[in-house]
Amino acid sequence: MNIVLLSGGSGKRLWPLSNDIRSKQFIKIFRTGNGEYESMVQRVYRQIKTVDADATVTIATSKKQLSAIYNQLGEDVGVSVEPCRRDTFPAIALATAYLHDVKGIGLDEPVVVCPVDPYVNDDYFEALKDLGEQALKGEANLVLMGIEPTYPSEKYGYIIPATKAQTSMVDTFREKPDKETAGAYIARGALWNGGVFAYRLRYVLDKAHELIDFTDYADLFDKYGTLTKISFDYAVVEKEPKIQVMRFAGEWKDLGTWNTLTEAMDEPTIGDCVLNDTCENVNVINELNVPVVCMGLKDVIVSASPEGILVSDREQSSYIKPVVDKIEQQIMFAEKSWGSFRVIDINDSSLTIKVTLNPGHRMNYHSHQRRDEIWNVISGEGTVIVDGMEQPVRPGDVITMQAGCRHTIFAVTELKLIEVQLGEDISVQDKQKFELDV
Amino acid sequence: MNIVLLSGGSGKRLWPLSNDIRSKQFIKIFRTGNGEYESMVQRVYRQIKTVDADATVTIATSKKQLSAIYNQLGEDVGVSVEPCRRDTFPAIALATAYLHDVKGIGLDEPVVVCPVDPYVNDDYFEALKDLGEQALKGEANLVLMGIEPTYPSEKYGYIIPATKAQTSMVDTFREKPDKETAGAYIARGALWNGGVFAYRLRYVLDKAHELIDFTDYADLFDKYGTLTKISFDYAVVEKEPKIQVMRFAGEWKDLGTWNTLTEAMDEPTIGDCVLNDTCENVNVINELNVPVVCMGLKDVIVSASPEGILVSDREQSSYIKPVVDKIEQQIMFAEKSWGSFRVIDINDSSLTIKVTLNPGHRMNYHSHQRRDEIWNVISGEGTVIVDGMEQPVRPGDVITMQAGCRHTIFAVTELKLIEVQLGEDISVQDKQKFELDV
């Protein structure tokens, strides 16, 4: 199975767990078998590999998410990086060209596209395989998944199939309706459009060449910034007469709000917390290392992260966006391809962060123009390189770096350090990267 | 006016703002005129000085609170330090001996004793003056303040006066009653016993000599640890026939619970927080530097500090003690006589703290047996002394100290540093203090 996972943008709907750089699909809230937690992207990737160990998985995403993807899935996962955001048609065209030109997938092979963040079970991925096999038959140019509605939702578009068969031609599409209209659609046998579809590779590559002037993947990548923003639905689906839909009746949830996200939690709380026995229907997700104590609450969601603390009535939580959009703040936590960092102190002319490097990884060789830095190694073994000079480091070692000085650190074992940044104008933009010849 | 403020012990009733080392009277939640916040102890001290600029104020307290008292009131305040806790009779005897032997207060002068944490207005301190003047007359050996009850409380003891006059002999005392009994007491003209009373110095000093074998203040201080625990009520008040009570009808609140504390706040929230317009009767006290967002809450108290986060229904908040007593945790924040510190990272074999030294102050000259330390100076100017060697420091300077090495830092201006502690067995007990000859 060739599967393209569309990994969407960032946002604050799940603040303080999601923010301008951390998208909801990277929040670790699902219990794995071994008692750890995994994110939506880790869960979906693991489920695909369970159903089809040989699946070619390609994540279509922006550059901003690359660090988090490599951190959570390892660096072997296929990624089609969009140099900038240009909506779904250019993104799917680029991923399709990537599959053909980089991964060597044949023109007649089926490709399945789906969002990276549905909350589903393994039967969903079995259905994706069926979708691909149906596309391969060539009865239609596109085969959509139609999700059996469980309630008259106003949040989804609807697909109206021509027949009640498991696989049917599509009669027509309907935009997100109001509740009453949604009920009427469902009475007519309409299905939810979850943005999941399959095609033979050639079909989308041809469409891409029709609409965009490019030679191959590398060329398309280079001119990506010049492309017009257009959705795949608008550019392709709505204009295509030969479309089929396959019904899917398994569990399918869109965990885009606090309400839906907490409903999918395996247990009411994650992290250090105490609820007294008068709490009712309370969910807590605490990413801090101090306890959250809840007493006498009903229908409340509490979430604490290095970015802030949310305490919300369950219903009200869906109105979070305008409330938190007003908050302007320093990014307090980030996953990088080499590990992660967390801001632990902000002062007038200094910033202190805790850096964790994964074993075998190093950060970029880089310098800053407008700040000095001090590394206090607190655990692990590694090697620092400062202005070309290499030196082993262990806990207790201190490395001071003046502004302009080039530096990196390589972790042999997991390595943690306290980095003190000093300067009048500390900014993540103040960074020059260099090649390292070692 | 000679006033002894009894500064009681620590506790978790106002967790996460109070804890094993920070008592409620040191929490800064009251707005001062200039837009800053002051604690109960700062508020009471300021009020006394407003009513009587020449008042001799002595705080009777334990050694543990000394740092916080000097930090909040300055080092000129009179303090009678109890070497260990021995209940109120020994504490008041010690403070009285201190007033006589150290402060030179005459045997016939009146002394007023009151708890450090009532929430009151200036009229209360005028009433304390009246109490002292009444004691001076010598009509009784003790003159108590009787607070006009505003409701039939089960939390206070009651004083039943002989007459309805402003000043009356006491007929009898009653222990904390149930609600119905409290109502009956009030119908008989009973008053709340707020633990406020005045006497001529000689009276309590004589009582002390009757019950304890000691020569003077220094001797009493030395043998304090051998004294029997006994309350002033039990040792003196209940056995004394010549007691008067003076009525006080002004505002008087005991801010010992989250419910009463938040009612006394000048505005609904303190610190960085956003409440949407569906919140009702919500109080937030946020001591962290990240925002608290509240949505759709009713009758809820939220408090966040470096120790943890409390989210409680207003009513339920009075049952907090058993819930938080189970929590065992590292002290994350403390006020010291020289400034303050906050734990910013906890790792397996390291602890990182942010230290703030007030201008002109220094910490003790000390060493640790089982940990190395690194100081990263991030702001201010000062001088470090390491194993007798003195050196000026400024932002960006790094000082490394091996276990066993003696060290201190003196702040010329306000000075902040990031201290990284490294060792297998980091503990606040691991500290030897030394004299410094400079």
Q: How does this structure look, described?
A:
The structure is a homodimer of 438-residue chains. With 438 residues, chain A is of the alpha+beta class. Chain A is 21% helix and 36% strand. The first copy, chain A, contains 10 helices and 30 strands. Chain A has helices at 40-51, 66-73, 88-101, 122-137, 179-187, 201-211, 217-222, 232-235, 258-263, 320-325, and strands spanning 2-6, 28-31, 37-39, 56-62, 78-82, 110-115, 118-120, 142-147, 157-161, 167-174, 191-200, 243-248, 252-254, 269-270, 273-275, 283-286, 292-295, 300-305, 308-313, 333-336, 339-347, 350-357, 365-367, 372-379, 382-386, 389-393, 398-401, 407-411, 415-422, 432-434. In chain A, helix 3 packs across helix 6. Chain A is globular and about 70 Å long. Strand 19 of chain A pairs parallel with strand 17 (292-295) of chain B.
Main features:
6-stranded antiparallel beta sheet, 30 strands, 10 helices, 438 residues, alpha+beta, homodimer, globular
* Unreliable runs of chain A: none
DSSP strand (E) fraction of chain A? 35-45%
Task: Describe the strand arrangement of the main beta sheet of chain A, using strand numbers.
Answer: 20-21-22-29-24-27
State the helicity of chain A in percent bands: 10-25%
Largest interface: A-B, 60 and 60 residues
Global morphology of chain A: globular
Number of E strands of chain A: 30
Tally of helical segments of chain A: 10
Query: Biggest sheet of chain A, in brief?
Result: 6 strands, antiparallel
| Amino- and carboxy-terminal Cα gap of chain A | 39 Å
Radius of gyration of chain A: 24 Å
Indicate the multimeric state.
homodimer
The assigned structural class of chain A equals alpha+beta
Mean pLDDT of chain A: 94
